[in-house]
Amino acid sequence: MTIAPHLFRPLTLRGLQTRNRVVISPMCQYSAHEGHMDDWHMVHLGRFAIGGAGIIFTEATAVQKHGRITHGCPGLWSDSQIPGHARIAQFALRNGAIPAIQLGHAGRKGGMQRPWFGNGPLTADDIARGDMPWTAVGPSAAPVAEGWPVPHALSGAEIISLIDDYASAARRALAAGYKIAEIHGAHGYLVHSFLSPLSNKRSDQYGGDLAGRMRLALEITEAVRAVWPDDLPMFFRTSAVDGAPEGWSIDDTVVLARALKRLGVDVMDCSSGGIAGAATASGGQKRQPGFQVEYAQRVRSEAEMTAMAVGLITHPQQAEDVLAQERADLIAIGREALVDPMWALHAASTLGHDTVFDTWPEQSGWWLAMRQKTSDFYSPQ
Ligand SMILES: Cc1cc2nc3c(=O)[nH]c(=O)nc-3n(C[C@H](O)[C@H](O)[C@H](O)COP(=O)(O)O)c2cc1C
Question: Cβ(249) to ligand 1 under 6 A?
Fold first, then answer.
């Protein structure tokens, strides 16, 4: 019997087993209505389940109404939002994929423009379209960058109710059928803004030294872990580095990973950047293939934790090499899955794991195998 490529070896995470190591990275769609998902989300995420991915992440989902990044972001702050998520989670499960939720709070970046309207703070044009601003919140009254609104610094009491809202959203996610809960601790949103010394200027127990700045991330994790069943895994997405000299560093990430592991986080999802700009800013510099894999590798070896690599991993052989070299345990695919929603099935073919459509959905696999056996194909001269 031939051994499967690393990308197609199942991974056991607590009581779950993935069908392969391909994960669809969370990707905002900016298309929800008052935090409710609709048919767009169903089709967008459903295609990845049909396309063979092992785990499918729903986009950043707000635990509070004002924790949305944009007016089009989904939430789980209300029971009325559960059915939209449930449809997607059930569809993924029925088609062999594990549905995962990313729970987030946009913090200082709450209530910004949808990317195609500018990806910055709201302007008069956005307000005219009906996207009314709200007061964003953060660790300190310091804006993301010049020209961004000054956030309200969360009080101790507000932090307690925020943590409670994370737990409530996790309960709703469980009711919807999600099997993995991820805390969004990256990209300059609320949790990351507490971690980074560039944005957290507090002098109470939620600021100051590394332990103080990590406190919110750890308390949220503890609260979610308390409601998330023991047999289901938790992930944490980190911005492993801020990319600024005085900012959050990979060494800090390793310390955080060890603390999260003690609290029952199973996988570190290693992204980067975003603390001082709209997106996961690269400062306009061109990015290299797999530019964040080194962070997953550091966390994996130094915190001895299961790690997920993400960022410009586009080719199946590239993903296979990252796993074979033991630099990560899972591979998250973002934009390339928008190019090819069937990335996982195509990767199986490219890597010689399934060249006869065996792992394709039965609705199409039988026909494609038959066509392959019985047909000649056009090839340009
Ligand atoms: C349309 C879009 C929306 C995104 N939304 C999220 C999000 O909701 N949460 C998150 O952590 N990252 C988000 N990201 C970042 C991706 O998850 C991923 O980390 C990033 O695109 C790099 O991976 P890639 O090169 O495979 O696309 C988004 C990326 C894109 C392209």
Answer: no
Nearest CA to ligand 1 atom 13: 27
In a domain? residue 380: no
For residue 332, report the distance from its CA to the centre of ligand 1, in Å. Answer: 10
Which among 30, 178, 189, 295 is annotated as catalytic?
189
pLDDT digits (tens, 9 = 90+) for 97-147: 999 999 999 999 999 999 999 999 999 999 999 999 999 999 999 999 999
What is the value of pTM for the model shown?
0.97
Q: Which atom of ligand 1 is nearest to the CA of 60?
A: 8
Task: Assess if residue 134 is contained within a domain.
Answer: yes
Is 1 a domain residue? no
Domain count, the chain: 1
Domain extent at residue 157: 6-374
Chain Cα centroid distance, residue 172:
18
> The CATH number of the domain where 175 resides is what?
3.20.20.70
How far lies 280's CA from each of 15, 30, 69, 128, 380, in Å? 33, 17, 14, 28, 41
CA-angle at 218, arms to 308 and 273, nearest 5° = 50
Contact criterion met (CB below 8 Å) for 257 and 210? no
* pLDDT tens readout for residues 285-316: 689 999 999 999 999 999 999 999 999 999 99
Ligand 1 atom, smallest distance to 310 CA: 23
Domain assignment present for residue 381? The answer is no
